[in-house]
Write a structure and sequence with these properties.
By secondary structure, the chain is an alpha/beta fold. It has one domain: 4-Layer Sandwich (Nitrilase/N-carbamoyl-D-aminoacid amidohydrolase). Helices cover 24% and strands 28% of the residues. The chain is built from 7 helices and 14 strands. A 6-stranded mixed beta sheet has the order 5-4-3-2-1-14. A 6-stranded mixed beta sheet has the order 6-7-8-9-12-13, covered by helices on one side. A two-stranded antiparallel sheet has the order 10-11. Strand 7, helix 5 and strand 8 form a beta-alpha-beta unit. The protein starts with a strand and ends in a 27-residue tail after the last helix.
Length: 268
């Protein structure tokens, strides 16, 4: 199958313009699966809960998810994209999965980064895997990469491809995801944004370099750090489903889970 990412620089608060730009880039993509950045339609650098609330949308009835569903139907593709979600009185940093048939699922970011903790609630539904036909996918958002448990859980649940919507400012993720893919024998599509946001006395620059990495630790595509870019590669799903390392070792069967209790019950 063909899968990849769209990388660009959203303008803060300009939802319609950001959606239009993303749709135009998706329109040109020849792929069955596309991943967009975190909070692609709103921008990232909020300065108040009120501001986040004004820009957040209900899922799947908000304009962002509706636009994604429309282009997914037209192009006959699946899309994962980062959206600011309003759910009753709570706000979440979320990602949606849509298909040619419409909305499928929402993932709410589990591991909030920096001031996100001031605007958003922690995700409350855990990690899930979805069968989209050619492959099974799992969703993560940005800082989730820092926790190896995120990728491991998705891999154990059967994900072939990790769809990682991101607004990265730290320089480590792209290299770290190569190891995440190797230690779980999965593909990962990191869809990062580019550009700079200035809000009051805050200024953040995003690293770009969106990336597709393979189960055998190859970088199949890495984007530039500045340009709008769509990266698409051919993915051999069978490579992610073979967890054998050699004749005697199987990545998952060789785990000694009886000795891993300290992961959830650390010593005092």
């Amino acid at each position: 199958m063909k899968a990849g990412f769209v990388q660009f620089s959203p303008e803060f608060g300009k939802v319609d313009e950001n959606i239009d730009k993303a749709m135009a880039l998706i329109e040109k993509a020849d792929a069955e699966l596309i991943v967009l950045p975190e909070l692609f339609s709103t921008g990232y650098l909020f300065v108040s809960v009120k501001e986040a609330s004004n820009l957040a949308e209900e899922i799947p009835t908000g304009k962002t998810t509706k636009a994604l569903c429309s282009i997914a139907k037209k192009k006959k593709i699946h899309i994962v994209a980062g959206v600011a979600e309003a759910s009753q009185t709570k706000l979440y940093n979320s990602a949606v999965l849509v298909s040619p048939s419409g909305y499928i699922a929402t993932y709410r970011k589990l591991h909030l980064f920096n001031e996100e903790k001031l605007w958003f609630q922690k995700g409350d539904d855990g990690f899930a895997v979805y069968d989209i036909g050619p492959c099974k996918i799992g969703m993560m958002i940005c800082f989730d990469w820092y926790f190896p448990e995120s990728t491991r859980i998705l891999a154990l649940k059967g994900a072939d491809i990790i769809c990682h919507a991101a607004n990265l400012v730290l320089p480590y993720c792209q290299d770290a995801m190569i190891t995440r893919c190797l230690e779980n024998r999965v593909y990962a599509i990191v869809a990062n944004r580019t550009g700079e946001e200035k809000r009051g006395d805050k200024k953040w620059r995003y690293t770009g370099k969106s990336q597709i990495s393979s189960p055998d630790a190859r970088v199949l595509y890495r984007a530039s750090d500045e340009a709008d870019e769509t990266g698409i590669v051919e993915i051999d799903v069978s490579l992610a489903r073979n967890k054998r390392i050699n004749k005697y070792n199987d990545l998952f069967n060789d785990r000694r889970v009886e000795h891993y209790s300290d992961l959830i019950e650390p010593s005092s």
